[in-house]
C-alpha cells in the first residue's frame, strides 16, 4: 500500500513539474476557492459588486478548513484529469468517463450541490437529521476527491511514456 501511495505521489509530481499544468493547478485552485467562498456563504456577492469582499464572521472552523482543503483537492483533480486526457489518452476521453468526472465534480466538489441534489431526490429534511449538521457530506466529498486523485495519479504513473 505504501508503495502505491509513493507511486501516486510521483504521478502528481510528474504532472506539476510541467509549467502549463502547474499554472492550470494554481488557476483552478484559486477559481474554485473563490467560487466556494460564495457557495458556502462565506462571502456575499452583492458586497463584491460594491467593491468589498467581506468574509462572514460567523463562519465555523470546519468551514474554514473546508474552504482551504477543498479548492486544493479540486484544483489537483482537474489538473490530473486534464493531464491524463491531454498527454496519455490518444483516443480522447470516453463519454462514460467524462460523465463520471462531471457528475463527481457536481456531487462531491460543489459545496452547495449536495443539498440541491438531496432536495431533488425528495429528501429535503436530510440535513436536519444529520448529527454533525452536514459536515459528514463535506468529509465524504473530501474522501472521494482524495480517492479520485489517488486513482488518476496511479494511472498516470503506470502509463508508459512511449506510444
Please, how many domains? 1
Instruction: Report the structural category.
Output: mainly alpha
Q: How many E-type strands?
A: 0
- Please report the distance between the alpha carbons of the first and last residues: 28 Å
Oligomer: single chain
Largest sheet: number of strands, sense, barrel closure: none
Strand content: under 5%
CA radius of gyration is 18 Å
What is the residue-mean pLDDT, rounded to a whole number? 74
Describe what you observe in this structure:
Helix 1 (2-17) crosses helix 8, helix 2 (19-39) packs antiparallel against helix 4 (61-88) and helix 5 (95-109) runs antiparallel to helix 8 (135-158). The model has no long low-confidence stretch (mean pLDDT 74). This protein has one domain. 20% of the residues are buried. It has 163 residues and is mainly α. The chain contains eight helices and no strands. 74% of the residues lie in helices and 0% in strands.
Amino acid at each position: 500500500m505504501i508503495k502505491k501511495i509513493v507511486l501516486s505521489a510521483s504521478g502528481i509530481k510528474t504532472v506539476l513539474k510541467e509549467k502549463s499544468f502547474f499554472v492550470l493547478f494554481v488557476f483552478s485552485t484559486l477559481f474554485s476557492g473563490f467560487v466556494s467562498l460564495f457557495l458556502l456563504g462565506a462571502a456575499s456577492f452583492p458586497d463584491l459588486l460594491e467593491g468589498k469582499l467581506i468574509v462572514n464572521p460567523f463562519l465555523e472552523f470546519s468551514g474554514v478548513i473546508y474552504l482551504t482543503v477543498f479548492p486544493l483537492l479540486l484544483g489537483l483533480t482537474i489538473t490530473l484529469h486534464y493531464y491524463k486526457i491531454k498527454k496519455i489518452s490518444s483516443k480522447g476521453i470516453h463519454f462514460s468517463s467524462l460523465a463520471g468526472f462531471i457528475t463527481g465534480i457536481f456531487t462531491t466538489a460543489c459545496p452547495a450541490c449536495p443539498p440541491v441534489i438531496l432536495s431533488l431526490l425528495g429528501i429535503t429534511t436530510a440535513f436536519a437529521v444529520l448529527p454533525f449538521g452536514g459536515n459528514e457530506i463535506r468529509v465524504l466529498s473530501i474522501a472521494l476527491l482524495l480517492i479520485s486523485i489517488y486513482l488518476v495519479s496511479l494511472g498516470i504513473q503506470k502509463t508508459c511514456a512511449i506510444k
